Amino acid sequence: MALDQQLLDILACPDTHHAPLTYDAGAQTLTCTECGRIFEVRDDIPILLLDEARQAPPAQGSGQAS
């Protein structure tokens, strides 16, 4: 079961900036559009705890030559 669109519309990062979250149904995660924290969705319940969030991996291809 996927998260309800109405719920996704109101969810925001629990950090002080309260930025919107993007949902990845395949990975069952919500990602903050500002800080990049990744929150898991377990049993269709978003786990929006800062202590349980993980940081997004560094972007590949940062433009620096080897």
TrEMBL record:
First and last residue of the signal peptide: none
Pfam families: Trm112p
Family the entry assigns: Belongs to the UPF0434 family.
Name this protein carries in UniProt: UPF0434 protein DFJ67_1010
Organism: Asanoa ferruginea
Upper lineage: Bacteria, Bacillati, Actinomycetota, Actinomycetes, Micromonosporales
